[in-house]
């Protein structure tokens, strides 16, 4: 079955000799030998199974058989047949996400920086084949089918190729088995690299090495470098095999290749101790590319004298790397300026070391990693570096380090992963660090507590509120015991507890705590210190929740100004406070200005952070609210639908942001007239809010109010009245009579009474509510004007026509000035036949 014509072909011929998009492909092995039958079979399978490309092709086998090298050779031979070829390191989901995000701009999509809707956009682009239909994704070293399969463009026109050691892939696709070399292939590689080897000697070498490709290549490199007679090499090989069998050999039957490496490693250790020590250090890193930048001069600590000297001299370091390459002990990719070792080489190196050597060299890896820490995980420009360090931090077990700076790198990686949006990877690392350091350092060690603080904040972001509150409470007490009540870390921990109060619905208590933290920060370190600005930002959050939008706006504007002066306009912390300013403006009823700013911040966040960053997705959710408030209902509905889909796909439907986006979608469905779907979705999201926060939490009450509007519009006035009556009582108890949410609920409840035929009760309620709205919100606030428009209808209904007409005329004039002539509510109120409802949009906690 022939390949589908790619997007860039003309008349059946490809317009370009290479793929339009060609990314992250490892260098071609110039000594690649044989494998012709396997390469042909792989090509035929990709052709035949192209129509069912949901199934991957899994190449697996024992280590050292050359799975990845086979895949690389195939790509170089067949590159002219594809528009897109993209290589994805697939051992960890964070790496898969990073690679797909990197692919986004190459597909003409908005580039991003996280594992979220940017990845979803890439997969959708590949699935529909726009702009490229003829693509090939290679997932290299994909261990877990369950973890990797969600990243396949299901149903797309292209191909997926997987290399793996995990035989479970055989249950997903008919595997192409890759075994050791045929004898002729072994001899060919030995003779290509070592022209002086006779056919008989090549056969003896191949026999001794078990035709294992990695071992054959190692022996060929050794012979090419040293010219040692084959008999002498076989004697050394046998000695090494005996040594291995006397000990506890790693990875079972890999004796031939490890024995071959040990010969080379012996020689390298004698000839260049620095090169050997560098390999030892790298053996504790991940088997992914290691940037040469990692070998920059260390600021702290020493590893070994010879290696220290090489690390301080770029020329000597270059010589060391070349010496490693001559023995085929690692590959240096000049295009990416990185070194990569096979995991079996790493195993062989660690097997040779004494326990003391392992301790020294693992510490060396940790020191090099810590020296590469930009120490600013909140800066978006540093995220690429943290992404590159992450797999090495995990594999090297940096959490076990006794070095303060190494543990700080782990904390910075936790912060980076959280800001980047990979909550699952962040949770795993944060839990490991917290549990390990609690055990090794004690629960009151400052770095244990730092890990606990960030873990608590992560659990909050994930909606795991009970776990977060318990951890935050114990962390605060530990800080108070260890460093005292006025230490900055204690104040940060207090900030986390304030968040827990908000989650409980105790907004007033949260405000008191937030004010206390901000005041103490201002007194201790000054009002413009970055930590004080963070406390000021959090105080703004608490002020919005209690409905004090005027004070929140004044504070947030000052905080935003100071943050932009400190960090710049394009820093994520500046953007977070700018969003607060926009929410304040919207809360004060200036919907047109708020919408303009919502559009600007969403665009800026998308450019800076990527479309799938959690903050960007939050901005898009708020943009949907802003569009609806401004009366652009069609755009609002489309934006809400996209925001909800992206958040649910990335974080599940229990995530707080996903829930808020779904609640917004119900309001848009109602405005669109799809009341049945609004009811179905509204019942579900209302129940989720109650399960998550409790029935009487203000956010759950807001969801109930939205559902009540839908019930009334469907003719179920009694149900709406019951819901809103309970909600009003709960709002009043929790937030007071004059909170904007309480006032909005009163406006809606009056509508329920009117729909039920109780005009007197509707009139009384609207008459009581309007002056309160004017006092709290102002005469021109849209909620106030909604109450006024409804009261005019009540007055007309009871025969007070002159009062009704005067109020109606004044209200229409005010609405036109406030919302603009084209706003749907203006036409609705002018018509005078339909009451105006108030939606409450839950503010971020």
From TrEMBL:
<feature type="domain" description="DUF7779">
    <location>
        <begin position="268"/>
        <end position="357"/>
    </location>
</feature>
<protein>
    <submittedName>
        <fullName>Tetratricopeptide repeat protein</fullName>
    </submittedName>
</protein>
<dbReference type="InterPro" id="IPR011990">
    <property type="entry name" value="TPR-like_helical_dom_sf"/>
</dbReference>
<dbReference type="GO" id="GO:0043531">
    <property type="term" value="F:ADP binding"/>
</dbReference>
<feature type="region of interest" description="Disordered">
    <location>
        <begin position="1"/>
        <end position="29"/>
    </location>
</feature>
<dbReference type="Pfam" id="PF00931">
    <property type="entry name" value="NB-ARC"/>
</dbReference>
<dbReference type="InterPro" id="IPR053137">
    <property type="entry name" value="NLR-like"/>
</dbReference>
<dbReference type="Pfam" id="PF25000">
    <property type="entry name" value="DUF7779"/>
</dbReference>
<feature type="domain" description="NB-ARC">
    <location>
        <begin position="36"/>
        <end position="191"/>
    </location>
</feature>
<dbReference type="InterPro" id="IPR027417">
    <property type="entry name" value="P-loop_NTPase"/>
</dbReference>
<dbReference type="InterPro" id="IPR056681">
    <property type="entry name" value="DUF7779"/>
</dbReference>
<dbReference type="InterPro" id="IPR002182">
    <property type="entry name" value="NB-ARC"/>
</dbReference>
<dbReference type="Pfam" id="PF13424">
    <property type="entry name" value="TPR_12"/>
</dbReference>
